[in-house]
Design a protein that fits this description.
phosphoribosylglycinamide formyltransferase activity; 193 residues; single chain; 36% helix; seven-stranded mixed beta sheet; purine biosynthesis; alpha/beta; Rossmann fold; 22% strand; globular
Length: 193
């Protein structure tokens, strides 16, 4: 059984979709939700879906091995970022080589890096006059949004689209593709996507 931990900082809609996708799967389960935000709605989702959740502080993540110890304690094999806003520190990247993936709401390398998340990304896409945007699923390394890209999916951006409409289109791609890509990466069958 491959045990997944999901890191999320906000609403957790992607986390919920991933949990639902793997419910009843004999090989893969979401075993833990971790958040740095005690107000994050993902905690309500975790409770409702009966997935254990742990809240940690920024210092716990950046300056200690506390978060790594939590992952080890729960026998986590694979880490998924789903709207997690902090940089993953080197001790986690080193402990989980090619076993931490993230989803970014744009076509990297465009519109990535520190501070580029959520609505800021969609606003930047609109401001740049892009004709398309999408999602990028990538391995996590020690820099924001610079890990090797695993998968991308695109959607058109119409001239009249607001950033909110762009966000909705991107969310649909996230929900459609992220769980399957996670499963493919875990099963080492990413080439079959």
């Amino acid at each position: 059984m491959t045990k997944i931990a999901i890191f999320a900082s906000g609403s957790g809609s992607n986390a919920e979709r991933i949990i639902e996708y793997f419910k009843g799967n004999a090989q893969i389960e979401v075993s833990l939700i971790l958040t740095n935000n005690p107000e994050a709605y993902v905690l309500e989702r975790a409770k409702r879906l009966q997935v254990p959740a742990v809240i940690f502080g920024r210092e716990d993540l950046m300056s200690t091995d506390k978060v790594l110890s939590i992952l080890k304690e729960h026998e986590i094999d694979f880490v998924v970022l789903a709207g997690f806003l902090l940089l993953v520190p080197g001790n986690l990247v080193d402990a989980y080589p090619d076993r931490i993936i993230n989803i970014h709401p744009a076509l990297l390398p465009k519109f990535g890096g520190k501070g580029m998340y959520g609505d800021r990304v969609h606003q930047a896409v609109k401001s740049a006059g892009e004709a398309e945007t999408g999602i990028s699923i990538h391995y996590v390394n020690k820099k924001y949004d610079e890990g090797e890209i695993i998968f991308q999916a695109k959607c058109p951006v119409a001239e009249e689209d607001t950033p909110e409409i762009v966000a909705d289109k991107v969310h649909q791609l996230e929900y459609q593709h992220y769980p399957q890509v996670i499963e493919s990466v875990i099963n080492n069958s990413i080439k079959n996507l």
